[in-house]
Amino acid sequence: MRIVLLDSFAADQGDTAWPEMRALGELVVYPRTPPELVVERCAEAGAILTNKVVISAQIMSALPDLRYIGLTSTGTNVVDLAAARSRAIAVTNVPAYSTESVAQLVFAMILHFTFDVAGHDAAVKSGRWAQGPDFCFFLHPLTELTGKTLVVVGLGAIGKAVARIGGAFGMNVIAAQVPGSSSSGRVPLAQALGQADVVTLHCPLVEATRGLVARAFFALLKPSAILINTGRGPVVDIESLLEALRAGKLGGVGLDVLPSEPPEANHPLLDAKAPWANRLIVTPHLAWGTVEARRRLALAVAGNLAAFQAGERLNRVD
User: Fold this and answer.
1) Which domains does the chain have, with CATH numbers?
2) Which listed residue (26, 261, 292, 312) is catalytic?
3) Distance separating alpha carbons of residues 130 and 120, to the nearest angstrom
4) Helix, strand, coil: what percent of the chain each, to 5?
5) Which of 53, 60, 11 is CA-nearest to residue 33?
6) Is 261 a catalytic residue?
7) How do the pLDDT tens digits run along the chain, 318 residues long?
8) I want to staple 31 with a disulfide (CB 3.0 to 4.6 A). Which of 9, 203, 258, 290 is the partner?
């Protein structure tokens, strides 16, 4: 079987070994693939692997040998699933490989706003401690997580991991009702937000959650509340977020995802000179990418294809 991996770089960071995948057929690896080269590169491929490269119905129709599409991600939005079903093309994804990795970044961001280790380190290295009259100094008031309320919006695998860690810190954890969800035992969102010291977003991106975090959402929060988004960028309405920051609301905002990635160079959230810049951190969609998580991903991607070749269904989404 000819196997084409269209955009390997995010997962392998230039190490194109993929030994488990090479054992399954003739593997061709491309670090990145522009849309106009997808059909050419996938000619005669029985299986293609993609993370962000879109596989449309038109592309499928141009690839008569295609029988399998393996997503090197959890999300499935880059594949036209209806077209795949109509052509009997199997589609798989990789659920839950990055759970602990993402949860770890959530708390790295939260701890940044409660202690600012990097900021204090920079101040010490600039000479402030050596020149000071006291045995200590604080750049801003430090806060403990114990006793604070953590609102988790979306209690899937990652949300549950975040809730578990929050509990270990002694936080009061509230699972909020996600719009459009039928899960029971959740606190109504409006009620939960009013109690939140920290809100962390882990809900899926569907029409009911697109732009969920907007003006009305911010109006319910305490002015000192911390917002963390390691989920899906479009869940947060950027203009409403900027409005809240300009108004002096929010004790901190940590974003690992944006509606468009990479962002344009002049994106207002990237302005290091903005008056609210010290209350905002933006990381480049890296929550999923620990060495351990990327290794789990590679093994799972190969396992999915091996199962397909054996006539078994594993992580099928078609």
Assistant:
1) 2-97+291-309 (3.40.50.720), 99-282 (3.40.50.720)
2) 261
3) 13
4) 35, 15, 45
5) 53
6) yes
7) 999 999 999 999 999 899 999 999 999 999 999 999 999 999 999 999 999 999 999 999 999 999 999 999 998 999 999 999 999 999 999 999 999 999 999 999 999 999 999 999 999 999 999 999 999 999 999 999 999 999 999 999 999 999 999 999 999 999 999 999 989 999 999 999 999 999 999 999 999 999 999 999 999 999 999 999 999 999 999 999 999 999 999 999 999 999 999 999 999 999 999 999 999 999 999 999 999 999 999 999 999 999 999 999 999 999
8) 9
